[in-house]
């Protein structure tokens, strides 16, 4: 079994960072709107953008948690499609990868 300690640590750091970012976004989304209608329109547009960013960050959090779970279970680094080992270079570049390069292609 390959030791993925460095990858796990990097994933944990990223997870911590993303969790804080999502909390900041949530706080911003819950802030009250201005009484001025024009300002409200601008704020609502900003909220739409923040919701998109939050959705993306939450997806990354799910992927990181899944990768950490695979590391804990010992199945990390194995392609979910073909069962072959995922190239370590790919895992360093994309630590949440679940497929090898061959299976990830079109």
TrEMBL record:
Question: PROSITE patterns from the entry?
Answer: ZF_DKSA_2
In the UniProt record, does the keyword Zinc occur? Answer: yes
Ranges where the Zinc finger DksA/TraR C4-type domain occurs = 74-105
**Per the record's keyword annotation, is Metal-binding included, yes or no?**
yes
What is the superkingdom listed in this entry's lineage? Bacteria
InterPro entries with a match to the protein in the record: DksA-like_N, DnaK_N, Znf_DskA_TraR
- Which part of the chain is the DnaK suppressor protein-like N-terminal domain? 10-71
Zn finger limits (dksA C4-type)? 79-103
Keywords assigned by UniProt?
Answer: Metal-binding, Zinc, Zinc-finger
Entries under SUPFAM superfamilies matching the protein: DnaK suppressor protein DksA, alpha-hairpin domain, Glucocorticoid receptor-like (DNA-binding domain)
Q: Which PANTHER family match?
A: GENERAL STRESS PROTEIN 16O, RNA POLYMERASE-BINDING TRANSCRIPTION FACTOR DKSA-RELATED
What is the name attached to this protein's record?
Answer: TraR/DksA family transcriptional regulator
């Amino acid at each position: 079994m390959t030791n993925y300690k460095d990858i796990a640590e990097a994933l944990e750091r990223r997870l911590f960072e993303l969790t804080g970012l999502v909390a900041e976004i949530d706080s911003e989304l819950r802030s009250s709107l201005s009484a001025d209608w024009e300002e409200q329109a601008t704020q609502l547009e900003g909220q739409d953008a923040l919701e998109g960013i939050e959705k993306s960050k939450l997806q990354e959090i799910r992927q990181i948690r899944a990768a950490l779970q695979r590391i804990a279970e010992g199945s990390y680094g194995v392609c979910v499609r073909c069962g072959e080992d995922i190239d370590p270079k790919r895992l360093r570049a994309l630590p949440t990868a679940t497929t090898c390069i061959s299976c990830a292609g079109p």
